[in-house]
Specification:
heterodimer; A: 172 residues; alpha+beta; Alpha-D-Glucose-1,6-Bisphosphate, Chain A, domain 4; eight-stranded antiparallel β-sheet; 5 helices; 39% strand; disordered C terminus; B: 121 residues; mainly alpha; Arc Repressor Mutant, subunit A; 2 domains; three-stranded antiparallel β-sheet; 3 strands
C-alpha cells in the first residue's frame, strides 16, 4: 500500500441543498467524493441501499428493502418507527441508465411524485441531483403539509386518540 | 388541518408570484409604510395597492394596522418561516441519509482499490 495516500486528509463534508423549484418540483443536490459508478452502485444494490436510506438519527429503521433495479422492475421499502405500524413505500423503475440516471414512480398514492436521480461525474467527484415532480401543485403542498407535524408522531397520536375514544383505527 | 396548511401555502406562493408584491415586501423589509406611501412609491392607485396588500395580508406575509385614517403595513414573515422550516427539515433528512451514503461510497472506493491491486499482482 502506498503509505502517502493513506495519510490523505479526510475530505470536508459536502453540502446538501433542497429547493422548491416550482409549484410541482422539489430538487435535492449533493456532491459525493467518488466516481459516478460507485455512487450509482450504492443506489441500485439493495444490500447497499438499505445501509444508508434510513439513517439512525431519523429514528426510523428499515424493516425490509427490495429493489429490482431495471426498467419495469419494482421496489418496496418498509420502515418501522418505534412502536407504530410500518410505513411502506413502493413503485417501479421506469428509466435505468447505468452510472448516470434513475427514474422511479412512487405508487403509494395517486399524488406520488416521479423521482429522477442523475449522477454527474466531474474530476472523480459525483454531483447527485434528485428531482421530484409531483402530479399537481396540490400534491406537493399536501406532501409538505403532511410532513410538517412529523408524520409518524402524528399518526401515533391519532392512534392514541382513537383508542381513547374506543374506536378502531382505520388503515388505508 | 392539512387543508388549512395547504390553503396558507397556496396563498404564500400566489402572493410571491407578482413582481410588485415582491417589491412591496422588499420595501417593508426596510421600513413600515402606509398604503398611500406604497402606492406613491410604486406609481399605483390607492385601490391597486390596497389589492396587492390584501393579497400579501391573506398570505400572512404582511400585517396592517389602521390608526386614524392611515393604514400602516409591516412585514409578517410567519408563513415564509414555516415553509423554510419545512424545507430545512426535509434537507436534514436527506443530509443524514447522504452522510451514511458517504461512508458506503468510501468503503466501495477502498474495496475497488484493493481489488485493483489484487488484479495487478
Amino acid at each position: 500500500m502506498d503509505s502517502r495516500r493513506e495519510r490523505e486528509p479526510i475530505p470536508m463534508k459536502n453540502r446538501t441543498t433542497v429547493e422548491r423549484k416550482s409549484e410541482r418540483e422539489l430538487v435535492v443536490t449533493r456532491t459525493f467524493n467518488g466516481p459516478a459508478r460507485i455512487v450509482f452502485e450504492a443506489w441500485t444494490r439493495p444490500e447497499l441501499l438499505k445501509r444508508w436510506w434510513a439513517p439512525k438519527s431519523s429514528g426510523m429503521s428499515l424493516l425490509s428493502c427490495e429493489a429490482d433495479v431495471r426498467v419495469g422492475g419494482r421496489y418496496r421499502l418498509e420502515f418501522g418507527h418505534d412502536g407504530s405500524k410500518p410505513m411502506v413505500f413502493f413503485g417501479r423503475y421506469i428509466e435505468v441508465i447505468p452510472h448516470s440516471r434513475l427514474v422511479w414512480t412512487n405508487d403509494e398514492s395517486d399524488d406520488g411524485a416521479v423521482t429522477t436521480v442523475t449522477f454527474e461525474e466531474k474530476g472523480g467527484k459525483t454531483l447527485l441531483v434528485l428531482h421530484e415532480l409531483y402530479p399537481s401543485k396540490e400534491a406537493l403542498d399536501a406532501a409538505i403539509a403532511g410532513m410538517e407535524g412529523g408524520m409518524p408522531e402524528s399518526f401515533e397520536q391519532l392512534d392514541e386518540l382513537l383508542v381513547a375514544l374506543g374506536a378502531s383505527v382505520p388503515r388505508a | 388541518m392539512v387543508q388549512y396548511t395547504r390553503a396558507r401555502l397556496d396563498a404564500s406562493f400566489a402572493a410571491l408570484s407578482d413582481a410588485t408584491r415582491r417589491g412591496v415586501l422588499e420595501q417593508l423589509g426596510r421600513a413600515d409604510a402606509s398604503i398611500t406611501e406604497l402606492a406613491a412609491k410604486f406609481h399605483m392607485t390607492l385601490t391597486g395597492m390596497k389589492k396587492h396588500v390584501g393579497v400579501l395580508e391573506q398570505a400572512g406575509l404582511v400585517t396592517t394596522q389602521k390608526v386614524g385614517r392611515v393604514r400602516t403595513c409591516k412585514l409578517g414573515l410567519r408563513e415564509l418561516e414555516e415553509e423554510a422550516a419545512w424545507i430545512e427539515r426535509y434537507r436534514q433528512v436527506w443530509d443524514a441519509r447522504f452522510d451514511e451514503l458517504d461512508m458506503v461510497v468510501e468503503e466501495l472506493k477502498r474495496k475497488e482499490k484493493v481489488d485493483g491491486l489484487k488484479k495487478r499482482a
